[in-house]
Amino acid sequence: MRACLRLGAAAAVLYLVLIQPNHPAAMTWWALLVFPLELPVILFGLLVIDTARLRLTVRIVITAALSVIALLKTADYAMFTALTRGFNPVADLPLIEAGLRLLVGAIGPLLATGALLMALAAVAFVISAIWWATGVWAKTSAPMPVARASAGVAALSGALAVAEIGQAMGRWSVPGSIPGAAFTARVGIERVDMVVRTIDELRSFNALARQDPYVDADGLFAAIDRDVLIVFVESYGRTSLDTPFFAEMHRATLARSSERLADLGLSMRSGILSAPTRGGQSWLSHATFANGLWISDQTRYGAALASGRATLFHLAERAGFRTAAVMPQITLEWPEADFMGFETVLAADDLDYRGLPFNWVTMPDQYTLSAMDRLLRAETGDDTRPLFAQVALSSSHAPWVPVPELIDWDTVGNGRIFDVMATQGDPPDVVWRDRDRVRAQYRLAIDYALQTVFDYAARHAAEPPLMIVVGDHQAAGFVALDERPDVPVHVIGPEHLVSLVAEWGFAPGLVPGDQIPAIPMDQMRNMILDTFSRDKERDTAG
Asked: Each residue of 267-291: pLDDT tens digit?
């Protein structure tokens, strides 16, 4: 009886490992009822192995394979929750460090360390449990008739597993219904296939990245006679226009700001872009916009930097602009900046913010824009070239607690005036227990960011820069309540420049029309170059 209980417990361990979901939508009680076709293959296969060395080898292979796939499923679950896509073993490994930094910012270093230790303990527990379970079945001796029957069951289950995997992956169709699913094996096969495809895509991407008809073109940006600011608003997505909970507030802010800016003599046009990422990884959108290449993962990001592709900022520098990046969330070394065409990089320390951080957010957007004016746009020295800058705002980045308030620009100073705001309200670990509260905070944070950007435009209406304000990505699906990758884009400035973008199909004002199609973000680089340059007749193929 004790031996039967051990066999049952070992089978249960493997059963739970094999049915582990990799997507939040699959985390239901029904998942417990899906029979894993790999289970009979493993259990009965272990029964028929009759040599100690082969048993050890098979156990090592099974334990390693199931442990790795369990980690992949967990990574999938996290990526689907945060970024609404699966985990790419080639492209997404660098995100682990970024995720840990975000965790520390959200819950603090002590709790983050505890969470990491618990995760490592869980991994060790799963590995040891699989090793124990395979050992229980491998060390069970079976009479010859039972061994033969076990071999037959293992072979039949293996055949069914192959048939089910092929059908699920669209390789073939099987008549009738297969009683179970080989989901874990399929995850492993799909990841191997993903790695191969990613490497192939990189070869094509590197070739494409080296083709650029604008490198030797004359008259680039010749139509622009002032500073250009490309302002990325963190987590600002189409949900602000279409989801009633957010749109009620954000559309009102857009309409009110549009009327105010028009009264001040500014022209505006707005559209929709499709971003290469959702829920995070803002730098992929920054790079896609600047490079004119679809950069949807970290591997493509690295390939774009290594390709020597001229970004908007390289080309702007050659056209006589000062180029800069204002990056308040950069707190570590940022070697990639050397490949992006920025003469000047203002990271968090360079902006000289003396106030308290807003949890993971280093400083309010209003301070970022105020510091940019002081450090980059004020008339200093003999360099009279206009500015061409990327500004990555961060107040609307998770955890959205607390949210700053817009104040008089003349009182911003060194940022200490924001200290009272930075200590208000519940901390993130309290707010994030309730998804409705998270969404409410997100709504307020986006509204603050929009108010700040448009108030900045109003402040400079007498001598306006050309501003291209764009959302970097949609927030995670459980926050945005919208799974689309679309983001708004607004062009604000003097009429003689903004009128040129009418050919893009953008709507007048700050509220894009409901029927405006989404333009892939990688097209923006070439659209800007074509629209604001002297020579519009050159061949833009490629």
From this structure: 999 999 999 998 888 999 999 999 9
